[in-house]
Amino acid sequence: MQNGVVGFVGLGRMGTVMAANLAAAGRRVVAYVRHPERLAELKTLGVTSTGSIADLFDCEFLVSMLPNDDAVREVFFGANPGAADGLAAGMSPGAIHVSMSTISTSAALQFAAAHARRGQGYVAAPVFGNPHAARNRELYIIAAGAAADIERCRPLFDALGQQTFLVGEEPSAANLIKLAGNVMTATALEVLGEVIALVRKCGLNPETFINILTSTMFGGRVHRIYGGTIASQAFAASGFVLPLALKDVTLALAEAQRAVVPMPSVSVAHDRLLTGIARGYAELDWTALGLIAAEDAGLQSNIGAVGDAAALSKASS
Amino acid sequence: MQNGVVGFVGLGRMGTVMAANLAAAGRRVVAYVRHPERLAELKTLGVTSTGSIADLFDCEFLVSMLPNDDAVREVFFGANPGAADGLAAGMSPGAIHVSMSTISTSAALQFAAAHARRGQGYVAAPVFGNPHAARNRELYIIAAGAAADIERCRPLFDALGQQTFLVGEEPSAANLIKLAGNVMTATALEVLGEVIALVRKCGLNPETFINILTSTMFGGRVHRIYGGTIASQAFAASGFVLPLALKDVTLALAEAQRAVVPMPSVSVAHDRLLTGIARGYAELDWTALGLIAAEDAGLQSNIGAVGDAAALSKASS
Amino acid sequence: MQNGVVGFVGLGRMGTVMAANLAAAGRRVVAYVRHPERLAELKTLGVTSTGSIADLFDCEFLVSMLPNDDAVREVFFGANPGAADGLAAGMSPGAIHVSMSTISTSAALQFAAAHARRGQGYVAAPVFGNPHAARNRELYIIAAGAAADIERCRPLFDALGQQTFLVGEEPSAANLIKLAGNVMTATALEVLGEVIALVRKCGLNPETFINILTSTMFGGRVHRIYGGTIASQAFAASGFVLPLALKDVTLALAEAQRAVVPMPSVSVAHDRLLTGIARGYAELDWTALGLIAAEDAGLQSNIGAVGDAAALSKASS
Amino acid sequence: MQNGVVGFVGLGRMGTVMAANLAAAGRRVVAYVRHPERLAELKTLGVTSTGSIADLFDCEFLVSMLPNDDAVREVFFGANPGAADGLAAGMSPGAIHVSMSTISTSAALQFAAAHARRGQGYVAAPVFGNPHAARNRELYIIAAGAAADIERCRPLFDALGQQTFLVGEEPSAANLIKLAGNVMTATALEVLGEVIALVRKCGLNPETFINILTSTMFGGRVHRIYGGTIASQAFAASGFVLPLALKDVTLALAEAQRAVVPMPSVSVAHDRLLTGIARGYAELDWTALGLIAAEDAGLQSNIGAVGDAAALSKASS
Q1: Which of A46, A101, D24, D217 sits CB 3.0–4.6 Å from C221 for a disulfide?
Q2: C71-77: long-range contacts, CB 8 A cutoff, minimum separation 24
Q3: Burial category of C171 from C-beta neighbours within 10 Å (exposed 0-12, middle 13-18, buried 19 and up)
Q4: B127-128 β-sheet, strand order
């Protein structure tokens, strides 16, 4: 095992800037990519990349930043359960899988147990923050796992984010908190959408309203930044798009069902995300919950602009 | 008309500390109270009080801090519409009614028109903040009305709150923003209740969760203070009790219906407030939305304590 | 007092055919209408009409079929409360107000008390059924009031409907049951809309689904007739239009609030009715709840046709 | 392959009476049971039973009546996907799997394809009706599959139910209709619960209300039978218990998510089912949605009795 070397799996928009930051912090980073055309781009970021998963076997840390349970399962444990043909089979005992994806707690429990059977560590470390925050090392990292493992990962976390919160020895705890946080944001966006639709339809200035709100009781990024977006109805055809938000809200509702916790407000946000996708806004950022609310209030003046944005995005993708 | 003198109507928990602050700022304040036993208490606060509404006729400013539309209507315009037997009939032309109550926009429109017919001013100035904030002059004041009237009122506002937001010449605008703000808080409490129930039922520490939330994306008073209350399940048998919250949410939904704006998340919060009252928690602060969510998740460990608090409150009221 | 003569107030689409049926049953019917151009039309139906409310003073029965509380209040008790300048002041002691409008229970309580003070009877008798059913004497009548009064009204009911249900001596009971019944229908339509959207979007035949449903567990008019309308998406620009449905659902929710009964499913239907109106479908029958559900599922193929219907209706109204 | 012989898997409360009815209709029925103590009981019903799945290999029809996707998958296709160690591997080409369980459409699609690869037929035939209806051959059968296969199954259907509805050649269509039907019932129960709580809390007789409802617009079993149960609040600690209802509603919401169809009313019913389970009513029939609504309205008089029933059930299970 090569001490300190970081294998990286999941070089999407978030993963790429995170891998680059690890490299910038002096780490040797070996990234597994499926598309050879990405090698040059990653090289400019200081990241070694490879199309062969075996090149990651010797790393001390294996960071994953993948879209969902199945993607993590496939890369680490193989497509066929029990077949043991994934990355975990090649990793050294003593190596640590640093799982930064937003996944379910049940998957986290399975993965932790599977690594433990091989004498490998498993640390859950999902993050709050978008690619812009990731680039600026402003992520918030929610970490859970064995204390000694977390201690070994801490230099990585320091290279990636502005603050790390330790939430326990059980990795799945971090995943639950990540999902709960995303649910807080999704419902806040839904409520902002409804209330701003009311304010607008009553002829008041929504920016004034958001200013009052955030100057008084609702400070914080969600209401300031997202509230401003919804007030100006300047929805972006990018970012954390509706299907990603739906994925996380659906995961959270599944956790809630397992725990037998009814969440009616979250159900409302879930149904509105579905509505947004059904109406053709799948490429818009989740602030578009504020577009659905506006449309349902008969406030249709911005649909044209949004339609253009969506069309633009479709044309260029 | 006695320049600078303030007549005050509505000496409840909020009104009393506000009247005292106006007196402390050097104003002569004449308060109308129905119960003679309050005269001594108000005197110690520097407030002259009277049981005769006519003693307020000469004031330049008439501040009202009353529970609802009907209470304002009765005191200012008489119980019988058109009968003109209320305070407004006695007020001087040129005097200003500073209406700080949380009332509907349609009432505000009526009141403004009725005062205008008499050559009187009408400024809407509802506030955000509880009695504790009121005592410390930390209220936020949302003011709307004719610019000249607002200018005359500004010294009063400065004596009452930490910041005044001007939101237009049409008084009802301030009332709508106040209602929209309370709806934001009610829905935030409902969501906090649901998410904290999930966090608790999954065995995690809700205080840790609130700490993460408010350190990252959800700063601001609502999530910090109220989130902490719900996390600790330490619901107070006082404060902004469920029926008051229900009143405001109901007013907001009525505004939404007039404006034809569906607000499904607000409907959820509304139904939960009703549930809380039906379950016997009418004397608990609106953070008790977090108690309803906990009960619905089968988290019943704190019911006993709350029951005691409610019983205590009942016994002492 | 002229025994057996019926005064009729509220000659809308329902009231007109009901008055005609009373005349056809051999009653002398004197209808109060504001528009003289209606006299000829009513004459052909066997109904005497008048523009002077005083011509109804001598009637034994005063039937009202008006759109809401305020309309009943204005005609019977005058626009100014306490002014006693409405129809009730002229009615004979011993006459009965047969109130067939869909109104609130609190209004019913007020009206019953006001008539009682004058020695007049008050029977609440709201109906289930549309103008078509009214024409065919197929209404269902929900009657409540003093037993003797009801007995006197029974021949009228027999001339108007197919069945009369007695629900107590307290008139407001009939109004509550009428509202509860309309809430049952509104929520059934909302659910049908959602489920049929699912069935359609999965590529199945919605008519087959409705056939199965009504052949097995969901017989009855609501699911058969309305389900068929939603399955075929043939929404009519007439009938019980969305604003009327909204009025009744709003009344029911107000009753529920008074009784402290949360009704989350009814809140969903309420919000969807608002959405429908905000989207411009105010002239469509309440089966159009199934259009809202279809649109929210991205099933937009029928919007064109509906838009045409609405446009048509707008053009002709 | 032994023509006409029926293998039966899933001898629960429904399956047992269905197998008995097939035997009573003259079929030879071989049932696979895991618990030898059931052999005697099944023998008295005319059903041959076996603990060896291989004894079913020669049957022409393989009927499954199992609780969920996984149970069907395990018995027919083995616990390990691809391992081909289930019943299907032993079945004859030309034999038909008659899948009467309530399962997802995606599972149905998989199963149909897997059988087709082996030259076997797959007919989906979920049913509406409880064990009582099953015993009396009053089930409604929703059948989908290849026309020739369905024709071969028809004598079985005639022995099991009162009516068979053919809904297409694609088996999954039957599963979707079954789920949609159960969603209709769950939401109807939720609405009945809410409305009956209102009626009761306003002091009216809920049985009168149900009588009016079912005599006028809401005939059909759901409103008559279940409405009566909720009106009398006589919830049974048996039947289609809350977790089973939750399973089906959850399946339906998953179908809706796949089809991108928001179903807010169904979300309400889903959240109420979760609430009921969290409150400890998991052993009550799904009419207990009416208990949740009653409790949320502060109508607690019947809780004691229900608690007893639940306790009783717990004690005896």
Answers
A1: D217
A2: C71/C10, C71/C101, C72/C99, C72/C101, C72/C103, C72/C107, C72/C111, C73/C107, C73/C110, C73/C111, C75/C9, C75/C32, C76/C111, C76/C114, C77/C111, C77/C114
A3: buried
A4: B127-128, B139-143, B161-166
Sheet order of strands, A96-99 included: A48-50, A29-32, A2-9, A59-64, A96-99, A121-124
Q: What's the longest Cα–Cα distance across chain C? A: 65
pLDDT of residue C116: 97
ipTM: 0.92
d(CA C35, CA C51): 7
* Residues B166, B141: Cα–Cα separation, whole Å: 8
Closest partner CB to D267 (pick from A80, A260, A271): A271
Q: Which CATH superfamily is domain C176-316 in?
A: N-(1-d-carboxylethyl)-l-norvaline Dehydrogenase; domain 2 (1.10.1040.10)
The upper half-sphere exposure of residue B91, i.e. CA atoms within 13 Å in the direction of its Cβ, equals 31
**Least CB–CB distance from B220: residue in A140, A219, A271:** A219
- Number of A/C CB contacts below 8 angstroms equals 19
**What does B178-198 look like in DSSP terms, one character per residue?**
HHHHHHHHHHHHHHHHHHHHH
Q: pLDDT tens digits, residue range D203-230? A: 999 999 999 999 999 999 999 999 999 9
- Contacts (Cβ under 8 Å, ≥6 apart) of C26: none
CATH fold label, D2-170: Rossmann fold (3.40.50)
Walking along chain A (317 residues) 10 residues at a time, the average pLDDT comes out as: 96 96 98 92 96 96 96 90 79 98 96 97 97 96 98 98 97 97 96 96 95 94 93 90 96 96 96 96 95 91 44 35
- Could you tell me the sign of the dihedral formed by the alpha carbons of D58, D61, D67, D70, in that order? positive
Which residues of chain D have a CB within 8 Å of the CB of A272? 262
Domain with CATH 1.10.1040.10 in chain B: 176-316
Determine the distance in angstroms separating the CA of B291 from the nearest CA of chain C, rounded to an integer: 16
Marked catalytic residue, from A178, A201, A247, A314: A178
Q: Are A112 and A171 in contact (CB under 8 A)?
A: yes
List chain B residues with pLDDT less than 70: 81-84, 300-317
Report the CATH architecture of A2-169.
Answer: 3-Layer(aba) Sandwich (3.40)
Contacts of D135 (CB under 8 A, 6+ apart): D17, D21
Q: What is the DSSP string of B75-144?
A: HHH-SSTT---SHHHHSPTT-EEEE-S---HHHHHHHHHHHHHTT-EEEE--EE--HHHHHTT-EEEEEB
Count other Cβ atoms within 10 Å, centred on residue B83.
Answer: 12
Parts of chain A belonging to CATH 3.40.50.720: 2-169
**In chain D, where does the domain assigned CATH 3.40.50.720 lie?**
2-170
pTM greater than the 0.90 cutoff: yes
Q: Is the pLDDT of residue D304 over 60?
A: no
